């Protein structure tokens, strides 16, 4: 094995994307992704059983595609990494089963890694090693978290997270309320550009003093998010329009909703950085593609003197390359592989970067 | 020919069979035969079970993999198929699929014959108070199925339920772990249970023997879910035109 640039194969199947990536150290060789997103459109959200069935169909073809793209053989791979959580149980199990089978057939070490930390780890594929003094803001259909990243291989701490819906989930639900298609993120982002973000003042979840407290005496949810109330507020507004017989100003609702989401996310992320003395922030997750989130986060980080890193969209959404990238970091740091005696962990906390070997 | 058989339609089951290189089914030797007891630990237990079986037999890799492709509860079934397909890809060997109930019938058929039965219904737990079932001859040939449904969907003897469309000969028995799992619903069922098979899970070894006796069919494994994914289109989506992004 090449200790400075190990060749790692990563497998991701925590939600609706079957991803297989190949990474050599911090160099991206292949990032094959098969998505079942189109199959979920008519339901307005990811249906776990449909996603799981699609994973089984896509697993080996995606694996074959990744190896061909990278032009490497399984025999050349130094280690395998797989998402073991958090995520949908049935979906995770397909990737975990495939990863264990690969480990058994090839005799290569296997790392069962944390999906959330991998969203941060993917940063090394663009611009190399991550800066010291780093926080990460992860925003997707399943997650909304602020992490402190002391070390990708040994020190990750959850600073805040959503206490109900993920931000991307709120986009999907609001899209449904407005009669817009799934996924809600891109379509609301586009419509919002034509609307007035100040037209309607929607609530900023968990922003009141009783939740925030102060830097010295933090409240119970200083860095946490809540989007459930916001979704309800949008629903009330739309119902009210119907009751009054006026047309829903869809673009204004989209813009005002988006502003409420993005405002609270960026404010709390910057606050967390400042209060923990963190000089850099990495943005990850599917919602990182949102234009207003990028714009406002860039502006607020700039005024706060925080360096912002945003991987390109194909690396922000769920993919196997991020799992491989984190796996390579673990190999390089000499972390012990997990082996094949483990199960999935749907609620895996980000402080657990990879599962330790079974005793 | 070194054959690895995996079945996860009920419990985790793994077998290694040394079979003749020609297509005959005689002299097949079972080197390893593991049938687990847990129906909720497929992802954890399967690969370690295959690993220890291979190590014990001293095989680096098999020549062929056979996977029981259900029917069975979805999540566990997928673990078996994902494992079998990925192992076959990594080893560069073929992988075939066979109905899991065929393995159950292969094991139960001789017992049914000894008990004087003419046919058997192989039944496995499908959860939601339902059964996966298929009908077999006393030689273990599948006559009907696989199906999924409540106990009331099982064929019954014509004389006990004349309105039922399926006419069965005398001496049909029920066999398989579905009996114990659905004992409450089966209590009023007229078909007798083949004694000793109430908790019988699918044995990979018997599935492998059934495959050899069937002439080694080369069907690609495909998950026999038998049920839709149960997803319901929400009412608020019904009027959405997904192309225009506006309510139609």
UniProtKB/TrEMBL annotation, chain A:
Residues reported to bind Fe cation: 115, 119, 318
CC terms in the record's Gene Ontology section: cytoplasm
Domain Gcp-like: start-end pairs: 27-324
Cofactor binding remark: Binds 1 Fe(2+) ion per subunit.
Top-level lineage group: Bacteria
The name this protein goes by in its record: tRNA N6-adenosine threonylcarbamoyltransferase
Higher taxonomy: Bacteria, Bacillati, Actinomycetota, Actinomycetes, Micrococcales
Matching InterPro entries: ATPase_NBD, Gcp-like_dom, KAE1/TsaD, TsaD
Chain positions recorded as substrate binding sites: 138-142, 172, 185, 189, 290
Species annotation: Galactobacter caseinivorans
From TrEMBL, chain B:
Alphabetical list of InterPro entries matching this protein: ATPase_NBD, Gcp-like_dom, T6A_TsaB
Pfam families in UniProt: TsaD
CDD domains: ASKHA_NBD_TsaB
GO MF assignments: transferase activity
UniProt keyword terms in alphabetical order: Transferase
UniProt KW Transferase keyword: yes
GO cellular component: cytosol
Residue ranges annotated for the Gcp-like domain, each copy included: 40-144
GO biological process assignments: tRNA threonylcarbamoyladenosine modification
Domain of life where this protein originates: Bacteria
Cited NCBIfam families: T6A_YeaZ
Record-linked PANTHER family: TRNA N6-ADENOSINE THREONYLCARBAMOYLTRANSFERASE, TRNA THREONYLCARBAMOYLADENOSINE BIOSYNTHESIS PROTEIN TSAB
The protein's name in its UniProt record: tRNA (Adenosine(37)-N6)-threonylcarbamoyltransferase complex dimerization subunit type 1 TsaB
Organism field: Galactobacter caseinivorans
